[in-house]
Amino acid sequence: MNTGVVLLDQNLLITDLNPAAENLLGISRRRARGRPLLQLVDDDREFQDILCRALSSGRTYATELRLGPTEVHAEDRIVDFRVSSPENADLSADLLIEMADVTRRSRISRENALLIQHGAGRQMIRQLAHEIKNPLGGIRGAAQLLSKQLRSEELQEYTSVIINEVDRLASLVDTLLGPGGPPNKQATNVHELLEYVLRLIQAEAGDEINIRRDYDPGLPLIDLDRDQLVQAFLNLVRNAVVALDGQGTIILRSRAIMNFTIGETRHQAIASIEIEDDGPGIPPELQGSIFYPLVTNRPDGTGLGLPAAQELISRHQGLIEFESRPGRTVFFVRIPLVPAIPPGPSAEDRHA
């Protein structure tokens, strides 16, 4: 069976489990017997409540949990749990737990949501920027003409304020619109690019922030627009620095990943560049919308850095993803190393 099955007694102790559950929980059958299941799922309070309700009511409940790394699994996993009373009277158990790893399905769904969010945000921000920019030229021109008609220097100061504010708004609009044109791609060593970003950020980071590197030396050169990628990584690293508020650790990590799907496109190989910090994390209420423009939890923030970074990475057929909890926030920049694998024939075509 691909589905993990765990049997619990009335004290929520494991009485038995199948091989699929051993793999999902990262523990052998011998070691698991007699142990509380809650210990293996980070003592999740909501899950504990579900187990107790299922035990007392006999009803079936379902939930989804994020399981942390184990001796077997290096990464977090998303697992569906279904809790019910055993229908088979021969089973010496009070609760039956069915488990299924839905990490890949969840990741694809999350990526599609990010792509939809990016598309909607880009359309909204461009429409907003154009609506603002169109009248600015007329306001500036009128202020210049008015300034020439005024003889009083005191009155000309007011027109200067108008012109300066219009120029400031125009600069903001240009930022909203982002750099135009297709990427000017050249073979680039992404590690050298990251080191350049670190030199730019060094003065902002301060001495209290520890920067660690975990680069994959086998990562090949990648066809990138250097200026666009510098800006994207600069936005991400600067966000990490601000999140740490002067103290903590930033880890820059690079890996090559084979057979990786971005959205609905499968790639033979991608580069995964990770920016990790041990700050307080992104507030849960913002995690579903941080790639929309003007969304920020900082009083002095513009909410433009992440949407701009996502836009620049999307021009390289890539995507920025993230995971965040208190003490660990990671932004993953996924960029294809080789052209995408074209979709194969459908089942109908093969049998035509």
Can you walk me through this structure?
The chain has 352 residues and is of the alpha+beta class. The protein has three domains: 4-101, PAS domain (Beta-Lactamase, 2-Layer Sandwich), CATH 3.30.450; 106-177; 186-336, Histidine kinase-like ATPase, C-terminal domain (Heat Shock Protein 90), CATH 3.30.565. 42% of the residues lie in helices and 25% in strands. It contains ten helices and twelve strands. It has helices at 19-25, 29-32, 37-40, 45-57, 103-149, 153-177, 190-205, 226-244, 305-314, 347-350; strands at residues 4-8, 14-17, 61-67, 77-84, 95-101, 186-188, 209-214, 222-224, 248-262, 265-277, 319-325, 328-336. The strands form three sheets. Strands 2-1-5-4-3 form a five-stranded antiparallel beta sheet. Strands 7-9-10-12-11 form a five-stranded mixed beta sheet. Helix 5 runs antiparallel to helix 6 (153-177), helix 7 (190-205) runs parallel beside helix 8 and helix 8 (226-244) packs antiparallel against helix 9. The longest helix is centred in the middle third of the chain and has 47 residues, at 103-149. It is elongated.
CATH superfamily caption of the largest domain: Histidine kinase-like ATPase, C-terminal domain
Average predicted confidence as pLDDT: 81
**Low-confidence runs (pLDDT<50, min 5 residues)?**
345-352
Give the C-level CATH assignment of the largest domain: Alpha Beta
Per the principal axes of the C-alpha atoms, what is the gross shape?
elongated
Provide a count of the helices: 10
Q: Work out the number of β strands.
A: 12
Label the CATH architecture of the largest domain.
Answer: 2-Layer Sandwich
Q: Approximately how much helix is present in the residues?
A: 40-55%
Whole-number total of structural domains: 3
Strand coverage percent: 15-25%
Taking the sheet with the most strands, its summary is: 5 strands, antiparallel
Helix/strand structural class: alpha+beta
> H/E element string?
EEHHHHEEEHHEHEEHEEHEEH
Largest beta sheet: what is the strand line-up? Answer: 2-1-5-4-3
User: Could you tell me how far the N terminus lies from the C terminus, measured between alpha carbons in angstroms?
Assistant: 33 Å
The rounded Rg comes to: 27 Å
Q: Please name the CATH topology of the largest domain.
A: Heat Shock Protein 90
